[in-house]
């Protein structure tokens, strides 16, 4: 089942509402909301990460990452991407690694105990 992309819509709305006051500020006065929007957009555009499983919080240039990723590589990638964002000086990486999140969600995976289904067509009365 595909999920509706709520996070990108929220980011776009936040950017649209916050843009006029942000443009008038200097780089030193950049608010955390702007930096958070840049970070979440970076995660959204990265094909190696699932941005819906990573929660971000920014306070005074410190990014806190939480949630679940599939591997240590993804955990390190999320941290490296955060550090690459202008306005983030430090990252507190609280991401948990859970390999079971890879591939299909467990509730939709076929069960080994479930009987095999026949692919032969059944006859229908006419």
UniProtKB/TrEMBL annotation:
Residues 109-126 have a biased composition (Low complexity). The lineage of its organism: Bacteria, Pseudomonadati, Pseudomonadota, Gammaproteobacteria, Oceanospirillales. Keywords: Signal. Residues 96-126 are annotated as: Disordered. Residues 31-99 form the BON domain. This is BON domain-containing protein. Residues 1-24 form the signal peptide. Pfam families: BON.
């Amino acid at each position: 089942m595909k999920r509706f992309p709520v996070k990108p819509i929220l980011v776009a709305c936040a950017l649209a509402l916050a843009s006029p006051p942000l443009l008038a500020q200097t780089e030193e006065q950049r608010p955390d909301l702007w930096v958070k929007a840049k970070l979440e957009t970076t995660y959204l555009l990265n094909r190696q990460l699932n941005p819906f499983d990573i929660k971000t919080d920014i306070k005074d240039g410190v990014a806190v990452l939480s949630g679940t990723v599939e591997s240590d590589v993804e955990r390190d990638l999320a941290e490296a991407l955060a550090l690459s964002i202008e306005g983030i000086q430090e990252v507190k990486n609280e991401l948990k690694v859970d390999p079971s999140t890879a591939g299909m969600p467990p509730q939709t995976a076929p069960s080994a105990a479930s009987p095999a289904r026949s692919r032969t067509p059944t006859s229908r009365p006419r």
